[in-house]
């Protein structure tokens, strides 16, 4: 990939808070006019990475380039070209929603029509409401409007749909897809697998400040095991259950305990594997509450890579 096609280049970034390493040698790139999701559990280092790309933090080690510029040194040149949607923006607490949007619009030379934007994001219903009185979902929608009103080339959206109802989530997804169609690059962080799977052209999975997997949703879910079986039982498993089930299923199959009542079987699993799991339950005297065979999801990819579930 030619550098000119890349909107963001993060190279071996290290960020610490005191002794705590928040970002641990992270490298990733974002193609222009794409939607790229940075996915990871709480505390993975997503927000810190985004804040560094936005120029709020200086890389302690490694480097970050955004639209070919250094976000700290070239801040003045970069700011009019990027939009940032932060998680919460309490500084505005007394200002009314549409006043805030109008104020931000005035800072740009060629802003979008704020009436149209307020319509699209359903902001008229709360246009005169002070920021601190907005619901979580309304604050998110206003934050998104403020991030894009200046027609940025690149937008960073941190958990854009956290706290939104299903309809607002769909509206937000559609808006982000329209931005991409207009050539805007969208970088978003999310905890939601369905959001990343549905929206993103490219996904970076981050854990403990490191990149652990990267690719399109299809490439990520196609690789490795193609199917998984989830087993949930009514009483805690006997000791050594994962090992005993693994022995029953053979060497190609991976068994991961999620908690004392559930485990995941992944590998080339098929109906006969399902029957073997069921037979094993019978032998062990455990009663399945549910036993399901399904396609591998991003959640399964994360589980295979880390042995943990992604969603809190
Ligand atoms: N200002 C700070 N001071 C000290 N530690 C911090 C600070 N901000 C973040 N951290 C720590 O750095 C690590 C990475 O945090 P960060 O917010 O970047 O992760 P995240 O992936 O965005 O998490 P979340 O999904 O919860 O927003 C966490 O362990 C967090 O507790």
Automatic annotation (TrEMBL):
Domain of life (superkingdom): Bacteria
Residue stretches making up the ABC transporter domain: 8-233
SMART domains with a match to the protein in the record: AAA (SM00382)
Keywords: Antibiotic resistance, ATP-binding, Nucleotide-binding, Transport
Chain segments annotated as transmembrane: none
Keyword Transferase recorded: no
Compartments (UniProt record): Cell membrane
One Gene Ontology term of the molecular function aspect: ATP binding
Membrane topology label: Peripheral membrane protein
InterPro entries (alphabetical): AAA+_ATPase, ABC_transporter-like_ATP-bd, ABC_transporter-like_CS, ABC_transporter_ATP-binding, P-loop_NTPase
Name of the protein in question: ABC transporter ATP-binding protein
